[in-house]
Automatic annotation (TrEMBL):
It comes from Sutcliffiella cohnii. Keywords: Signal. This is YusW-like protein. PROSITE patterns: PROKAR_LIPOPROTEIN. Residues 1-22 form the signal peptide. Residues 23-53 are annotated as: Disordered.
Amino acid sequence: MFKTNILMIFALLFVITGCGQNDVSPPPPETGDTNNTTPGITEGEINPLDDDDDMTVRDEDIQHSFMKFDLDVEYDRNVSYEAEYEMEGNGESKIEDDLNDRRLYGDDAYNELKPKLEQLNFTQETENIEITEEILTVFGIPTEYKEFELEVTFTDGTTKEVKFTQ
């Protein structure tokens, strides 16, 4: 009887441990809601905890001549307008607009920057003052700046820097 109990315990232990090894649960059923938003954040709002500035850039999306575009315009009272676009990797974009108290990152920033970048027609040979005037007009920002800085890398790899102080 003692041997039977030991064998029974051993067999039971073997069965229990054998059944518990495959803990793969099926994925939860889809609810039909494909809008993956963060709870508490409505569409169009920016989640400050979300630092994912990556965006998807496809070749057919690019209709401007910039691989990198970095604009920083400083105004009185520590107010600035910054717009950045970089095509490397997945691409990165951001707009920090103190004039209108707006912050956009990733795809939201890219979607706002793309039509503006497509409107810009300057080249490496364009005079700096003409570039400044064109950017201020296209971006719709005030001309009464304290400092204007632009660094652009064109798709051919050439770089242009523009700096003005008023």
